[in-house]
Request: fold
Amino acid sequence: MPATCAICQQPIIARHDVRVFGTEVMHRACAISGRQTVAVKQQQEIATLRAELSAAREAERRAVSEVQRARAAQCRAEDALRAMTARHADALIVRDEACAAEATAGRLLTQALRERDDARSELAKRTTAHTDAPEDTRDPAVIRASLLELD
Reply:
């Protein structure tokens, strides 16, 4: 396999005027044209690829960091939700206890009002029994005489 020009990739024939730079061999006309050699192009491609790789790794690092922050925020949100759920459950228990206490107070109030009404009616019966005593229509002189007889 014959040697090839580092710039144009054409075979180098013995009659061609050549130039040697380091490990690269090229036609004199190609060297004068100022075009880049394949090795330089490859080095530039490698440098470009390394820069892209570095940028990709940095983007990956940022993405991983963002995911970690999102997971931490999710954990905090879940903790807050659990605390809020617990407070809500406690509030429901307090509400149920308050409703039960209100119902008990209502029953006690109804019972107390009934007892008060019964006591008032009983008192009314007793006072009317004393005040509604049948009047003695007898003459006071007759009553006095009967009292004197008793002595």
Residues 52-119 form one domain.
